[in-house]
Design a protein that fits this description.
about 325 residues, mainly beta, Jelly Rolls, four-stranded antiparallel sheet, 2 helices
Length: about 325
Amino acid sequence: MVKQKSDWTWFIMLLLVGVVIWGGKSGWFKFTVNIDNNQTGPTNLQPASSGPEYTNCAQLCSLYDYSDSYATSSTCKPGEALTKYGYPNQPSLLTCCCYNEAPATPDCIDSDGDDRDTVGHVTYAGETYTDKCLEVGQAVTEYICVNNRVTSKNWMCDYGEICMQTRSGGHCIPAPHVWHPGDVVFVGGGAGDITGGTLPIGANLNLADYGITTDGTCRLGVKLTIDWVYATGTPTCTGVQGMEGLKWDFYDSSGLEWTQIDTMPHPPVTYDLHPETHILQWDGVTPWRGTVSKTLGLPACNIHYNYQIEVYIYDC
């Protein structure tokens, strides 16, 4: 006689089938992703129950913004993320190494770009190419990078420039000025009122700012044009006209070089100081300068003065 299954047996079998169907719909058997990044990155992540199923490492790694990947059995290189994909508590369906490829180092490196006024160097394939002056004409050979490869072009220097070849390389520079006798190096002037004390005129006249050198090839001269009047007309201050006036001083690099005392107002007068009458030294460092002061400093004598300083090439 065959013994029939009890009602409880059928009930248990139906219950198990229902659990399997319900569990499948509820995502009990969806895949799981685990990422073990050796440096930085997400870890122990699971996609949503409705997430896609992955079939290769490229798909899996792109999920976490990695650009490159390869399959592995267990380990990755330093800096790469070990990524596993599969059922919970089951052997992984995919085991991947995820990483981002480092940007390639350019094969061609230019230190100055396409600049003929700067000495530049191009490094390419282990060799160094340095900008240089052409043997003929005022031009420079400029090495540059084009499409990550070294090339060169010849540049003519601008008008008024020359190509200077140095130990570092060649580049265009302004042509040195050639001075001639009579060339004016500096012109300056001013005016003001003085009631007492000493005022600077032509202060800090640094001749180096105007391209003058101290190599001894040229000597300098100075023309000083000066005048003064009482600011209120006929003086009303204490004292006698002719006793109160102005004292003019001019200093070169060695110190006081020229002094003039004007006791009476007068129209502009020019004094020419040059090597035949004055040394007028310049050490290349100490600026030339001038001062104006009242001779007596009597009260209420307000004097208005004017001056002009012109430095010129006396001879070369």
